[in-house]
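Review this today:
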Amino acid sequence: MATWQDVERIAGGLAGARPGRAHEGSPTFDVGRHPFARLRWDDAGREVLQFWTLDLDSGDALADRSDVFFAVHTFKVKASICAWLDRLEDDELTEILTDSWLARRGVRI
């Protein structure tokens, strides 16, 4: 069961990552000019992680995991995904944050 403190620990270890704030004040982790992890809350105060990926097929890939990943917004070159933090294990959270960091740092490999 992950929390924002786990995001801080993992994201803080990625090159160039730094804590930030979204336009309305919620915590983020940023790389370059872009957030790659953003903390949101549902109406009951449950922690939600917003992250990004370049995998435009993420909605289809995550369709059977709607208990964890509940919103996928696909744009022209990236997707924004929301997940319940308390449903993520450490290994999966590390993979998600690393992928999002890669997608948002502005360097294509």
